[in-house]
Amino acid sequence: MNFGGIALGAAVFLIIGICHPVVIKMEYYWGRRSWWLLLVVGLAFAAASLFIGNALWASVAGAAAFSCFWGIHEILAQEMRVLRGWFPENPARSDYYRKRREELASYLKEHPSHKHLGKKLGR
Questions:
Q1: In Å, how far are 7, 24, 27, 31, 69 from 88, measured between CA atoms?
Q2: Fewer CB within 10 Å, N or C, the chain?
Q3: Spatial separation of the C-alpha atoms in residues 65 and 40, rounded to whole Å
Q4: Is the Cα torsion angle 92, 40, 79, 82 positive or negative in sign?
Q5: pTM, entire model
């Protein structure tokens, strides 16, 4: 019997489970500008996967790399979730969120065809 597929599936499940709260915490403490950290870690995992001799571990490193790359998208989406009020905002960064909401409101006035963004913000 070959348990490699089960092991890989479990590893990917664990990686995704770890990345989800990491993205939430990164946005809470550092904001969307922390996306580059996920890029660096993702590139490191991608590079490592090229040099790992074992196919299972190379696959796990590749999965970790692309989970980090997906995390970049999620960190940007997490900011929108915070602006909608779905997740708590960091009180130490309340000025940033206020300014960001004003920027988006101004953008919506200038670009009425993008009114779907206002719906995302509950406006």
A1: 35, 10, 11, 12, 24
A2: N
A3: 9
A4: negative
A5: 0.82
Q: Hey, what long-range contacts does 85-89 have (CB within 8 A, 24 or more apart)? A: 85/122, 87/24, 87/28, 88/28, 89/28
Exposure on the CB side of residue 50, measured as CA atoms within 13 A:
5
Q: With H, G, I as helix, E, B as strand and everything else as coil, classify residue 19.
A: helix
- 82: its two tokens: 């915070």
In this predicted model, what pLDDT tens digit does every residue of 21-60 receive, in sequence order? 999 999 999 999 999 999 999 999 999 999 999 999 999 9
Q: What is the pLDDT of residue 57?
A: 96
Cα–Cα distance for residue pair 35/37, rounded to 1 Å: 5
Residue 98 CA neighbour count, 13 Å, CB half: 5
Sign of CA dihedral 8, 14, 17, 21: negative
Contact partners, residue 84, CB within 8 Å, separation at least 6: 120, 121, 122
Q: Indicate if the pLDDT at residue 120 is higher than 60.
A: no
